[in-house]
Amino acid sequence: MSSSSTSALEIEIFQYIDAHQSDFIENLKEWVAVESDSVQPDLRKEVVRMMALAADRLAALGATVNLVNLGSHQAMPVNFRFIIEGMEEAGSLGLENLLEKENQCFFSDVDYFVISDNLWLSNKKPALTYGSRGNACFFVEVECGSKDLHSGTFGGIIHEPLMDLIALLDSLVDPTGHIQIPGIYDSIAALREEERKLYKSIEFDLDEHKNNSGVKKFIFGTKEEILLHLWRYPSLSIHGIEGAFHEPGIKTVIPAKVIGKFSIRQVPHMDLLVVKQQVVEHLKAVFSKRNSPNKLKVSMPLGSKPWLADVNDLSYKAARRAIKTVFGEDPDFIRDGSTIPVARMFQTIRQKSVMMLPIGAAEDGEHSQNEKISKHSYIKGTKMFAAFFLEISKLHQHLHETSHTETNN
Amino acid sequence: MSSSSTSALEIEIFQYIDAHQSDFIENLKEWVAVESDSVQPDLRKEVVRMMALAADRLAALGATVNLVNLGSHQAMPVNFRFIIEGMEEAGSLGLENLLEKENQCFFSDVDYFVISDNLWLSNKKPALTYGSRGNACFFVEVECGSKDLHSGTFGGIIHEPLMDLIALLDSLVDPTGHIQIPGIYDSIAALREEERKLYKSIEFDLDEHKNNSGVKKFIFGTKEEILLHLWRYPSLSIHGIEGAFHEPGIKTVIPAKVIGKFSIRQVPHMDLLVVKQQVVEHLKAVFSKRNSPNKLKVSMPLGSKPWLADVNDLSYKAARRAIKTVFGEDPDFIRDGSTIPVARMFQTIRQKSVMMLPIGAAEDGEHSQNEKISKHSYIKGTKMFAAFFLEISKLHQHLHETSHTETNN
Description:
The structure is a homodimer.
Chain A: H1 8-19, H2 21-32, H3 44-64, H4 95-102, E1 112-115, E2 127-132, E3 135-143, E4 149-150, H5 151-154, H6 161-170, H7 193-201, H8 206-213, H9 223-231, E5 235-242, E6 253-254, E7 257-265, H10 272-289, E8 295-304, E9 307-308, H11 314-327, E10 332-336, H12 341-350, E11 353-356, H13 375-408
Parallel strand pairs in A: 1-11, 2-10
Antiparallel strand pairs in A: 2-9, 3-7, 3-8, 4-6, 5-7
Helix pairs in contact in A: 1-13, 4-12, 11-13
């Protein structure tokens, strides 16, 4: 904040933010109390309620704009368009169609896309994100019949679907995390030496990350190996099984139909349809060796592509300056092992710069139990966004003046 | 019913049962409407309600005894003691202690134990059951930490507990149902040639059994192989996983703690403690090969021993006659692949004859969805119990007279 580059306007905004910290926290409290979990069908009504809440709040801001009304009435440094979508964890079905439909309407005058839906790499140092992995989700269904059976009456004489499924799931990854599906690594972009060097300079505390995860030991021992395997190599995770007994206690059931759920985080230049074919062929091959009379079905209900941005884009420059102003240091330029499908969609559909600007610490546990945000990240992050809007306004204006000058030449 | 051995008393009872069929069905309707599922903790209050209902009904019967009051007031051919226990599917914790405690009190004058908690081998031919498999239930817990993780943030760099668990579960059984745990078949009673012949004479419709199960194909092709593998060889079934994602849809979670549930149906002369040790050692050996830093815990929360009775016992003779009278044919003498721990407990604690007298068809789907009983089985079964009580009274009296005569000699 004591940076010499801080403008009088920025100081005024930052003082406003500091003075209203408790209002901001109350607002956030009200929002996070809404159980808007799109994955649980029962809670989807809460996603809709969250939407209504957000809409009301934005409408209210549009009417009074107290937060950014800094003397010159309704004068914002940039114009905003908000897109709020609540089903990201459930695959955001229909979002891509909407973006395509609104490409020449709602989005026609949008120059920069900013998404704030991920975390920094460390607990303290801010980061800018320029890439994310894709995600291909798979369902493997094995069925022996229409009704569950009792293990006393049929145990030992039938091919149990859950045993078939477990063998299929066990064939996917070796104990070192290496995916066993033939061909899956074939089209991954080769790692260039200068790219490998880039990883070396990133500030990343392995022990901190390990503490955040709660696990005792990672598969890899060095920072570079860890980041490469999170960002630019694919991974496969098994999430669970639908249809089997899942409650506490014991139930001596042979489930008749079980569905294994797993997903592959893919990276450039893996192709979704090729990945799907490789998975299907591999599972069919493993299944056929078991001589099981059960029915096997493999499907890919969701598939999101990876995303990579150009870090020389103007928005990255503006964000870098804003971070320097508010946090007093340069951000790390990082990728994200997770998937933000909308980043890739905006890039593909609008052909405009897309940036991810996180304001959460690594330890905040996104998508997990006790997901949180620290007061520090929340308030400083709010200031950072204010500074970013001022910066991008300046840079954008400069770019257009330059462009105008060039045209005049 | 037209059998020449049917007595006037039996005819009177059977007519009463026929005339009151709809009352019996109404009674049963009221009982099965109670969701007394001991496995689901939420429904345990219903188990208690079921107990109260049964107690009320028995008290009411004790007061008026309309069902068997056939002219000679309160005169039953035998005395009854009922034991009603609702937690069998959840392991009947504490039952064995109660039986031991009541051995010289409540049970002191009980000569014959009859349990009716299983099914016939076919849909039409009645059966008497003289043995059941034991059941050893296992929990295999693998844990990486205290909180679930996101597959984008940690996928590819951690040893996922669910992958460890799946590998462990996959190591238990081969695709032909053969258990892979070293030593597990060592102490199984050898199959004698005369025993093998016994299996040949049993009426068992393989296709009917397959239709009841809903599966396309069994692991074995002959009646003998099927019955041997259901009754006198152990089997291992996997029931499910606690702690993993189990709902419809997708959740890109890496579960931090998962518990696999499986059980082994054991047969004479497998020893529960030896089985437990073999399972633990096998799982530890498989786990150690994975070099996983996760925590492994194996436990056997429930263990029930197998049971075998002597088919020459008086109660088996009485039941055979009663079945012949009511159903017009001799029963099959069968074993049961399921576990009725109380049969073994009565046998061990009381050292008295224990018999299982089922009145349900194979297709009734015990313990499964849409469990049912046909009106035919229910009404004929009720008659069969009446005839059985008369027969056992006669045979018991005869035995004591003979014994008295012998003493006098």
